[in-house]
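name: query_chain
kind: protein
chains: 1
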Amino acid sequence: MRDILYYGATAKHLQLAGHPIEKTIFPDGEISIRVAHSVENRVVYYIQSTASPVHDHLFELLMTVAALKQMRPKKIILMMPYFGYSRQNRLEDGGSIVSAQVVAELIGRSGIDALVTLDLHAPELVSVFPVPVYQISPERFLLEHIVAHVDRQSCVLVAPDKGAVARVRRLGRLLNMGTVILDKTRMGFHSVYTRHVVGAVSGKHCLIVDDMIDSGKTLIAATEQVLKQGAIAVHALATHGVFSGHAIANLADSPLQSVTVSNSIDQARLLGKAKFKVIDLQALISYYAKREKKTAEYSVLS
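structure:
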């Protein structure tokens, strides 16, 4: 029988050729999940992220997998374009927990057979999940965007912190572009500043590349730093646009010329905001969701 695709609340904006999960919200806040089509002996692809509100969508995910599981599918493949807990991947002090590991265990033991995700913030989390995890690389659409919109002769790629260095250096090699690294020091949870620029930015356009933009504070600090060092203009490109709190307003008021993210998370809030651009992942997600895949073939996603 043919594979079947279902999508949750966080994937409606992708407009994929699948079936929505039927969710009822009761007056007290409880939810009820219903799967409307038979999935018996079929491979089910279920698309849902743990985007904000994180816990609502996480619980919807767990309930949906349970509903699918009881209908005896051949396999359940969870496709999670954005894994919201991936940054909480280390202990902060003796009384804390590794939250990403707890959530990975919940999802991995919910009844899914494999997880496909996009640009996981902490790649080491792959080994934490109790099921196979395969990552869709963002490299293709990042490269396509840069080739289409950036003058590579006058622009350098900028890593805003150490976590982005490997990504920026690889893109630089593939595109034959110069790269710059910002040595960032974080003072407390909310205060971020950059110490110095490693590389030449004077007289250059700068493209800051990262896996996600959340509060925007790191990005704004990085922008101000390279402008102080003589950069002509600064743009930003990231896979996931989280935009917590007042991030959108703060970025709109910042010296950044443009901010480009994918729609791994619904970016309806950016409509009409000229500084922000969105890369549509519908074709990419649809490609991996529709393909007939066997476990041995997942290596192509790495």
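note: The radius of gyration is 20 Å.
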